[in-house]
Design brief:
Layout lengths: L8 E7 L4 E6 L21 E5 L13 E5 L3 E7 L7 E10 L3 E8 L7 E10 L5 E7 L8 E8 L6 E11 L4 E5 L11 E10 L5 E7 L4 E8 L2 E2 L2 E4 L4 E10 L9 E8 L6 E8 L10 E3 L5 H4 L3 E3 L7 E3 L9 E4 L7 E5 L3 E2 L5 E9 L9 E7 L8 E7 L12 E9 L5 E9 L6 E9 L15 E4 L6 E6 L2 E7 L5 E6 L4 E5 L6 E9 L2 E9 L1
Antiparallel strand pairs: 1-20, 2-11, 3-4, 4-11, 5-10, 6-9, 6-11, 7-8, 7-10, 12-13, 13-18, 14-17, 14-19, 15-16, 15-18, 19-20, 21-32, 22-25, 23-24, 24-32, 25-31, 26-31, 27-30, 27-32, 28-29, 28-31, 33-34, 34-37, 35-36, 35-38, 38-39
């Protein structure tokens, strides 16, 4: 049930001066719970490894393992030769149950007297994990070991560390990472690309970004509350950048397109390249358009989701005993919304149809969790036309007798027939929304199956020669169709009954589809 036919693949490549990690320690391999860390010298067991969560904030930062101090003063050492001519960055994540002094040292032997160079000294307070880092510009000769020291403050028991990293650092070193890696785009519309730049060197950088204009126009960059192609970035700083760009209207659907962003600094000693590949979409003009959400291919075909993670439309395969896929919105966790856009479709000005299946539940049946279905010429709710509203709870319209899957048809007209169907999920902290099997059609309406719907509808007289009265509790709309399923007319009800004039129609068999608060029911009507 999912993926998007606008492929946005971000390939990020940077070429820099030499730099690299000489130690990445997460304590994940070959260790045993409550024994000294493998690879470290700790003769008095003042540092131990921990597995999974324990008391006193002894928890992993990543993975399942970590190291924790086990005395008022704890030392452990690792053989690691530090080159005097190199600069280093020391990084560590730490958490404690009180106030601790955490220190990194270098020296010639694995004992407190042999540790002669203080690399980093920080205070760790109780609370959440914190990241600590420091640059060391000068390393004396003879530093063959790195030591870690923890000193407990009054009332403190354990200091926990994880994800220790030591890197050799050059003066100019940076990396570019994409944040969003999947989107959809139509020619003439604007895309938004998110990425961030990290300064991994030990000096500040003046960064310049140069975009390509072969396929995109109106390109803008936003960073640190400012706009422009230049920004300063300091050592250890991360700058988040948002780029907006409009795919040129003359780009044909299916054309392989891309946006290059080149990163340079004044010394010309380091460059970076971000390439966003784009396959533009066209307008769907062959119907019916069906989406089963059985796999991620719906994204490649132009179905787009917007909303803040994690509360948004999502593809799922393990919900409601479904073997394949469907779309779900966690309305139980939010009173927010998320939008699911169809591919752009070319419809008729009248007699269009969207059909979908909605799972109705008896859990919290009066909550206002719902789906609002709109049509609009653009991918926005601004100026959109509301087609209909379907509630999740069985006590809300359209009222359902029991929990289960229900199929609903919503018919609509549109002045501008080229646009998008929009499914807005709205949560009310009730129960989650599930939809499946969407059909969009611009041809005469086919005869729907009654499915789960059990609306009590009557038509009289039947047969008739002139008028027919349709009666049902909560009657909303009546659609008249011929034997082939072609729509002849539709009327909106003002109450629980509606009279329809058939005098000018030829004799024959017709179908009456009545849409009520309880669902949809289709009956036959004979004209004589």
């Amino acid at each position: 049930m999912k993926k998007t036919l606008f492929t946005f693949l971000a390939c990020l490549v940077a070429s820099f001066a030499y730099a690299g990690s000489i130690l990445i320690e997460g304590f994940e391999y070959a260790n045993h719970d409550e024994t000294s860390p493998i690879g470290w010298t700790c003769n008095d067991d003042s540092w131990l490894c921990g597995f999974h969560e324990k008391d006193h904030n002894r928890i992993p930062h990543t993975g399942n393992w970590y190291a924790f101090s086990n005395a008022d003063e704890s030392w452990m050492y690792m053989p690691l030769y530090l080159i005097p001519s190199m600069r280093y960055r020391f990084t560590c994540w730490a958490i404690s149950d009180g106030s601790f002094q955490l220190e990194f040292w270098a020296g010639g032997s694995p004992d407190p007297n042999g540790m002669t160079v203080n690399l980093m000294s920080v205070t760790v307070e109780s609370g959440a994990y914190e990241k600590f880092s420091a640059y060391v510009q000068t390393i004396p000769a003879g530093c063959n070991y790195v030591g870690v020291r923890a000193v407990a403050g009054s009332g403190a028991t354990y200091l926990t560390i994880d994800d220790v990293e030591i890197d050799m650092v050059e003066e100019y070193d940076f990396a570019v990472h994409e944040v969003n890696n999947d989107t959809v785009l139509y020619p003439g519309t604007q895309a938004t690309f998110h990425y961030y730049v990290e300064n991994l060197g030990y000096t500040y950088l003046y960064m310049h970004m140069s975009p390509s204009y072969e396929y995109f126009e109106d390109i803008e960059f936003y960073h640190n509350g400012q706009t422009g192609t230049n920004f300063y970035i300091y050592p250890d700083e991360t700058v988040y950048v948002t780029a907006t760009a409009t795919l040129r209207p003359d780009i044909a659907p299916g054309t392989i397109s891309w946006l290059d962003i080149v990163f340079t600094i004044p010394c010309d000693c380091a460059t970076g390249l971000a390439t966003f590949w784009v396959t533009p979409l066209g307008t769907v003009d062959e119907f019916p358009l069906r989406e089963h959400f059985d796999d991620l291919s719906h994204q490649r075909k132009g179905w787009v989701v917007t909303g803040n993670n994690p509360v948004r439309w999502e593809w799922a395969t393990d919900a409601i005993e479904e073997e394949n896929g469907l779309m779900t919105f966690r309305a139980s966790e939010t009173d927010g919304t998320s939008l699911l856009f169809s591919p752009k479709v070319l419809l008729n000005e009248s007699d269009n149809l969207i059909r979908l299946q909605l799972y109705r539940t008896a859990e919290m049946p009066d909550k206002d969790d719902r789906i609002n279905v709109y049509y609009n010429t653009g991918m926005t709710l601004l100026g959109a036309d509301l087609i209909g509203t379907l509630h999740r709870g069985i006590n809300r319209a359209p009222i359902a007798d029991e929990e289960g899957w229900y199929e609903y048809d919503l018919n609509f007209n549109c002045d501008n027939p080229e646009g998008f169907l929009i499914l807005q999920a709205v949560g009310d902290m009730g129960s989650d929304l599930y939809i499946d099997e969407i059909l969009i059609d611009n041809t005469p309406l086919a005869i729907p199956e009654n499915g789960h719907n059990t609306a009590n509808v009557s038509v009289f007289p039947n047969p008739t020669s002139k008028y027919a009265t349709i009666t049902a509790e909560g009657l909303q709309q009546v659609v008249l169709m011929d034997e082939t399923g072609r729509r002849i007319k539709s009327l909106n009800a003002q109450g629980d009954s509606l009279q329809m004039d058939l005098e000018t129609l030829p004799n024959g068999l017709y179908f009456i589809m009545a849409i009520t608060n309880d669902g949809t029911r289709t009956l036959t009507l004979a004209k004589q």
